[in-house]
Amino acid sequence: MRLRPQPTNSTAWARAATAGREWWEWVSLVSPFFFWGTAMVAMKGVIPKTGPFFVAALRLLPAGALVVAFAAARGRKQPSGWAAWGAIAAFGLIDAACFQGFLTEGLQKTSAGLGSVIIDSQPLTVAILAALFFGESIGAIGAGGLVLGVVGLLLLEVPALSVEGSNTSVWGSGEWWMFLSAQSMAVGTIMVRWVSKYSDPIMATGWHMVLGGIPLLVISVLNHDPALNGHIQELTWSDIVALGYTSIFGSAVSYGVYFYNATRGSLTTLSSLTFLTPMFASIFGFLYLGETFAPEQIGGALLTLVAIYMVNYKSIIGEK
C-alpha cells in the first residue's frame, strides 16, 4: 500500500499564506460597503446634535485633505490650469456638496437603511446617462430593470409621503432629499471621465471633497447648526467617535479602498456589491437605532435591488 506523502511545514505555511491573502482580499472588497452603510447609521445618530450641514462638511473636508496628502506622498501630480480646477470645482459642487448636503438633509427625516437603498439606486440613473452621453447599451433586460426600478422607488417614497400627510410638500420628505442625493451621485459618476481628462483622478477625488466641503461649512454657519452655535460642548465621546468614523472610514478609507479595488479587479463585480451598503445600513440601523421598514417599503427595496442587478446584467454576463 502506497502512503500519501505528508505535507511539509513549508507547504502548510504556503497554504495558510494563500488562505490569508484570499481572506484579506475578501475583506478589502467588502469593507467600503460596510463603512458606507455603517457611516449612514453613525450620521443618523449624531445629526440632531450637530446639524446636517456640519456633518456633511466634516465628512468631506478632513477626508479630502487625507486623500490629497496620500496622493502627494505617492508622487501624484497636483491639478494645474483653469480647465483642471474648473472641472474639479464643478465635480465638487455636484458629487460632493450636493450629494452630501442632500444626503444629510434627508437623513433627518428617514431611516439610515431606507435612505441607503434610495441612494444606491443611482446605477439606474447612471445607465440612462451613460446611454445618452456615451452611447452605452443596456439591452432589453436592463431596460426592464429601469422600469422596475421606478416602481421600486415609488413604493419606497410614496408611503412616507402618505404618512406625513397631504399638507406636507415633497421638500419636507426625507425620501425626496435622498432621491436628489442619488441623482447628484449619478451625475458625479458620469463626470469622472471628463474630470480625469484634466487631472490625476486620485488628486481630483481629494480636491473635489475639499472644494465641495467648503460651501457646506458656510451653509452650516448660516443655518446656525447646533455644533457651530454654542452646542458643540454637548457632544459626548461617542458622538465624537461617530463623527471621526464618518469622516475617516466613511469617506477617506472607504473611497481609497474602493478605488484601489477598481484598478485591479472587475468593475462590474465591484458595482454589484453595492447591494451590501443598504444591507449593512439596515442591520445596524435596526440594532442601534431601532429602525424598521413599512411592508410597502420592504417590497420597494427588494424591487430596487433586483432592478440594479438587471441594469448590470449585460455587463455581468459579458464578463463570465
From TrEMBL:
The chain crosses the membrane at residues 23-41, 53-72, 84-103, 124-156, 176-195, 202-222, 242-260, 267-288, 294-311. Belongs to the drug/metabolite transporter (DMT) superfamily. Plant drug/metabolite exporter (P-DME) (TC 2.A.7.4) family. This is EamA domain-containing protein. Its main location: membrane. The keyword RNA-binding does not apply. Keywords: Membrane, Transmembrane, Transmembrane helix. Pfam families: EamA (PF00892). SUPFAM superfamilies: Multidrug resistance efflux transporter EmrE. It is a multi-pass membrane protein.
